[in-house]
Fold this sequence. Notes:
Elements: E1 12-20, H1 23-34, E2 37-42, E3 45-50, E4 53-60, E5 73-80, H2 83-95, E6 101-104, E7 108-114, E8 120-126, E9 131-136, E10 142-146, E11 151-152, E12 156-157, H3 160-163, E13 182-189, H4 193-204, E14 207-212, E15 217-221, E16 229-232, E17 248-256, H5 259-271, E18 276-279, E19 282-286, E20 292-297
Parallel strand pairs: 1-4, 5-8, 13-16, 17-20
Antiparallel strand pairs: 1-17, 2-3, 3-4, 5-13, 6-7, 6-12, 7-8, 9-10, 10-11, 14-15, 15-16, 18-19, 19-20
Domain VOC: 12-126, 182-300
GO molecular function: dioxygenase activity
InterPro entries: Glyas_Bleomycin-R_OHBP_Dase, Glyas_Fos-R_dOase_dom, VOC_core
Amino acid sequence: MKSQEILANTIRLGPVHLRVVDIPASLPVWRDVVGLSTLTRDGGIAELGVNGKILIVLHAGATTVLPSKSRDLFHVAIHVTTRKELARVAARVRASSLRHSAQDHLISETLYVSDPSGNGIEICFDTPGRFASREEMAGGGVSLVAKDGTRHSGLEPLDIDRLLQELDPADRVKVPLAADTFIGHIHMRARSPETLMAFYLGVLGFRPHIQSATFGLFDCGTEERAHMVAFSIWARDELKEPPVGAAGLEHFTVVLPTREDLAAVARRLGDAHVPWLQTGGALDLSDPEGNRLRMVLASD
C-alpha cells in the first residue's frame, strides 16, 4: 500500500452506537458500574460519556438479547488512563451482581462485563511499558515477551485483589470516569477475518497488527495505536448470525483529521466498488460481514 493510502496516525475512534432491548435496564450498568454519565436522553436514544464527550450511544428498539456466540459485537473497549481508575471500576464491578472477568494481556489490564442486552464491555488500562516484543511462533501462534524476558500468552487472569490495592480508604469509587477516558478499540466476532482485513487494510487504510488464525485474532490500527479494530474467530465453528431484531452493534465511528483524508477514503471505496452514503460530512458504510461504521471529520 502506498503511504498516501494509509490512514493518518491521528485518527481515533468516536462514539460507538449500540442497540439495546431496554434503555432503563441498561443504564445502571453503563452509568453506575462502568462510570459513564448520562449526557442526553431523547426518546429511544441515550448518549453517555465523560465531561460532555459522547462515548456510547444506546438505541432502544432491539427485541432480543444478542446471543453470546453471534457474529456481531464482541465488546467495545473503554480505555482509562490510570491504574487507579481501573481499580475504581473493579471495585464497582465487584460490588455489583454482574458476571465479570479480568485478564492481563501484558500490553493492557482489562475488566469485562456485559449489559443486560448482551453487549460486551471492556474497561482497559494500557500498559505498554511492560511489553518488549511480539514473536510469531512456528505453529502460527503468538508469544508476548515482557521487558523482564518472561513470555506470556496475553490471556493470563488479572489479579483483581492486587489491583484493588491501588485504592486506599479515602478513595471514592462511586464517581464518574475521568475526563480523559476514551474509546480505544472495537472488537467483533467474525466468520472470515481474512476477508475483513483485506477491506480494513486495503480499502480503508488501517495498518496491520496481529494476523494469526492459530491465535484466533486479527486486528489493525495505526502506527500510534496498533489495536483499534479487531476480529476474533475463537467461536467460529459455533458462530451464528444474530437473530432479527437482536441487540448489538448499530455502528462505530472513525474520526479523521482532514477533509483530504475523508475524500481519500471515499475514493478508495469507489475504486473497490464498496457502496457508501454521504450524510453531511460523514461516510456511512458496512464492512464485508455487515458491521456498520461511520467515518467523520474531527470537527463534526
